[in-house]
Amino acid sequence: MEIIRMRSLSSQRWEDIKPYLDDYLLGLQSFSFSHKFELDSGGYTTLKVTKYPDHVRLKDMLDIYTHTFCQAMAEYLIEHFEQEYIHHLIKSEYGFTDEQERDFIYSCCHQELFLHDKHKGRDEWKVAKRKNNVYKKLIEVARDGDPFNLEGILRFRLTEYTEDLCQTIEYAINELVVEQDYREFIHILRQFLTAQNPKIAFIHLYHVEDKQFIFYNEEGVPLTEETINGILENWVDPSVHHDDIMMSTLISIAPKRLIVHTHQPQHNIVQTLKHIFQHRMSICTKCQDCLEWKNTEENRGNKSGLVKR
């Protein structure tokens, strides 16, 4: 008995889909169900049931196979086909020909579609929800009795799904633009840093809190606000935002050696400094100075060149 017909599958597409179908349909065999796939002269691949238990009604058998088939296809679409489809959209619909740019965009898409927002591990609830949405649409197609045509289903029946993918791609493209702007920003600061003569050869930068930093020289003497202001007054635009003062100070000092003492080595500001200063900079997370300076600052307050960024 015919259950589902799939239209015009290439041999490669069928090789990709069949393991998912086999995985889902295999469990039915232990309950005395049997099935086979047939390819006819018209190019249709048909799922046919050859045997099912006597106590199972025909309608129930059809429902069992239809639901199982649609679950397998939803699994295939999300876990396998989607990667290929997104790459196709990035290149064909959005016109990105550079491989590195396409890879960056896809990586952002994968993160949004599969990974948890916080710990970046796979978010099974998010993935399961997307599979269920696709599954419900595939059930509608199957109940209408239409042959499964993957291209037609994507274009006309899974419109919400494809629109979500396009929105995700557009978000990723925006992230690419931000990343490119960031790289250009880093490049300009590196060039400026290279052109500067060091005003202080060695700087310790203590990361107090999220966006608070204290400057020390090589002897461990804190830089005063007067010293910092004197360094900055010759080149910082009066309209500069207070957020840029810490970065401007370091670029202006242009130390040959910079040690950033922090308990948050992956902090955005710390990583930006690492990208700018490169081999000049190292990160310290647990030296004795860190502990001593922290205790000293708790007693000293903000009189030692504390800069809020």
How would you describe what is shown here?
The chain folds into 2 domains: 2-187, no CATH class; 197-308, Nucleotidyltransferase, domain 5. Mean pLDDT is 87; it is low at 235-243 and 302-309. The protein contains 10 helices and 8 strands. α3 crosses α6 (159-195). The longest helix has 37 residues, at 159-195. Helices cover 57% and strands 15% of the residues. A hairpin with a 2-residue loop joins β4 (202-209) and β5. The strands form 2 sheets. The chain has a 5-stranded mixed beta sheet with strand order 7-6-4-5-8, with helices on both faces. It has a 3-stranded antiparallel beta sheet with strand order 1-3-2, covered by helices on one side. The relative contact order is 0.08. With 309 residues, it is an alpha/beta fold.
Topology order in helix (H) and strand (E) letters: EHEEHHHHHEEHHEHEHE
Strand order of the largest sheet: 7-6-4-5-8
Largest sheet: 5 strands, mixed
Radius of gyration: 30 Å
Topology, number of strands? 8
Core attributes:
309 residues; alpha/beta; Nucleotidyltransferase, domain 5; five-stranded mixed β-sheet; three-stranded antiparallel β-sheet; 10 helices; 57% helix; elongated; disordered C terminus
SSE layout and pairing:
Layout: E1 2-7, H1 11-29, E2 34-39, E3 44-51, H2 58-93, H3 99-114, H4 124-144, H5 150-157, H6 159-195, E4 202-209, E5 212-217, H7 225-232, H8 245-253, E6 257-261, H9 268-277, E7 281-284, H10 288-300, E8 306-308
Parallel strand pairs: 4-6, 6-7
Antiparallel strand pairs: 1-3, 2-3, 4-5, 5-8
Helix pairs in contact: 1-2, 2-3, 2-4, 3-6, 5-6, 6-9
